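Predict the assembly for these two chains.
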Amino acid sequence: MSEGIQIRLDLDRHNFKLCCDLVLPDRGITILFGPSGSGKTTLLRCVAGLESTFKGRIAIGQDVWHDSEQKQISPVWQRPIGYVFQEASLFEHLSVQQNLNFGLKRSQSKHPLEHSIELLGIGALLERQPDSLSGGERQRVAIARALATDPRLVLLDEPMAALDEARRQDIMPWLERLRDELHTPMLYVTHSSQEAARLGDHMVLLENGKVTHSGAMADVFSHIDDQDTGAILTARVVSKELPWQLAELAFDDNTIWTADNNLTINQTVRLRIAARDVSVSIREPLHTSIQNQIAGRIIAIKNDRHPSHALVIIGCGKTQLYARTTRKAVHTLGLSVEQKVWAQIKSVELLV
Amino acid sequence: MNDLHSILNQSAIDAIMLTLRLAAVTTLCLLVIATPLAWWLSQTRSRWRAPISAMVTLPLVLPPTVLGFYLLVMMGPSGPIGQITETIGMGLLSFTFTGLVVGSIVFSLPFAVQPIQHAFESMGARPMEVAATLRARPIDAFFNVALPMATPGILTASILSFAHTVGEFGVVLMIGGNITGQTSVVSTEIYTYVESMQYAQAHWLAAIMVVFSFAVLLWLALMKRQTRAMLS
């Protein structure tokens, strides 16, 4: 077998075991998903060669990077990878441009640097020093630096975990762009089901150092043990209706009403709309007690945890909402991707 | 120089120049020796780490006379170092400038190793891992990532080594023998003046030492504050 990314490993540390045998597609983003301590970062480090004392075999196509039986283990610097760490880990003594050049000149990459710079929108930052960049900018530079080496495989270890929610929303479109425009396969470690849902083509679920599921995103996503699937968004308070104790929040071009808990006009708030609190209507709902209705288009329909359930992902402007419905409802209403629908939101949770 | 001559006699000026030369040569040699040693100590998991680390720290707690005595014996005609240097035609190192340099290196080793080792340790493993994923061989990563990142530590090590060498007494006295113009440094020269009741000369040299030491420590403190400001 010489197709795809083959990862077979058996790693035994004093209080941790990681054991897997995977063949992953040689294209798109594969999400490595699991709770902390499940071994997803260790798996990524084994592929990179940052961990090298384990039994097994790592190969990409015909290229063998690690074969403990043949005693053939390439050092990290010989592997054509691009690695993005959780913290950007830029070289603080070098400028952004010099950070990008570091890997570029050592990899003798023919890949034009301008492409990586443009792809991550960091053209204006090149002369800056890392300590003058925001968290989101640092991470974009780190990704561009990894891509500049023209890697055969990109490894991303929770690249957004160290960022706050607003920065995450900033960087997400760049990652989506990478997925859509690069032909390099990526392994992406995360414990956020939102990130997974937005970015992944393929998914591996890990638990206690073992793979529980691996397969196409839509099939595996339903096995995520996450009661709380939902959208998190940032909105601004635009008006208040004092008699009803309600406040109106605006995000993108949409507005939504919520209980007024001493909110002030123009205050920025984060809110979470859980998938279980959203239902879907194919016509504009008029005679309903649900006040919050947002029009959008269906981006994807995924299998949910229980076989009777489906997760409908609705794009409303730049925001994505998740609706948990029954599969029967999807069938009866004839829901399909790209269809225009109204998301009816029963409750909004303010995260302050 | 004329001004200096009016308050200090020739042997005192010779001692100052010799002290500065000794401190400069010692500091340069120490950087070359201490940097790889500090790197090894910061990275290794070898069982030799603890004994080597203790050896490096030993000059910090040993009386300088003990250190000087052993070095003198080893550099003497029947000592192992003495036999080697005589065989290769260098003659004996005891009572020479080279001997003083060797003694000073041993004596100030912990002052050079510890700040550099600390700088490497506080850097953590991550920068070297990043460098490796960007195709840098270990030696390349050491020179282009680890070393530049440890610059504040290396600077501290240089200042401390220089100042500590200027301030040493016991070891130079044992190895050098306080020969005017050859192995007599400021600290031993002061001793000579006091013994021969030349208090005025001793006063001047002592005052110079106090001012110098204070200036060095002040510089170190200011540098640390600057580094902290840079980091925060």
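Chain B has one domain: 2-231. Chain B touches chain A through 19 residues (CB under 8 Å).
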